[in-house]
Hints:
Layout: H1 3-9, E1 14-22, E2 25-32, E3 37-38, E4 45-46, E5 49-62, E6 65-78, E7 83-86, H2 100-112, H3 115-122, H4 126-164
Parallel strand pairs: 2-6
Antiparallel strand pairs: 1-2, 3-4, 5-6, 6-7
Helix pairs in contact: 2-4, 3-4
Amino acid sequence: MDIQLDALLKFPHVTVESCAQQDNEVYLKLRFLNEEARCLRCEKLSSELHQNRPILIRDLSIFGQVTYLKIPRRQFYCHDCQGYFTESLTFMDAGRQYTRRYEEHLYQQVQLSSIEQVSRVERLSFDRIEGIFKHQYALKKKQDGQESSALALMKSANVKDTKTSPQ
């Protein structure tokens, strides 16, 4: 639809099909540009669309207005696995109602203030903000753990290389 909106959105293989504003809220209807998805089990591409159910998820605000994205949740059939799978999206975690960047934003805001304050500003319940915070904390802890173990492995490899290399 609008190249500028697509560029601002910064989601790969996605275009903004329509934009509507209602009661200090913005609604962007998205459409995927790719006709196929990668199977989560066998990693092969499938273009056999089984069903498409649009969902509404919250994203970062645009110009101080609450923003929602209406995205198609596509389910494909994989001939190799003989099963159905829901397309994974780079901009949101499976089963979540918010974009990753919005959840990361909320996590950062809670670190700077409190769950209560963020709850009031974002007009979300305390429990929602707390759940998002815990989810992001767990992701970051897991990521930090993986980075720490990878770093330790690299250091270990460097020590071995130093011991075995001729001097």
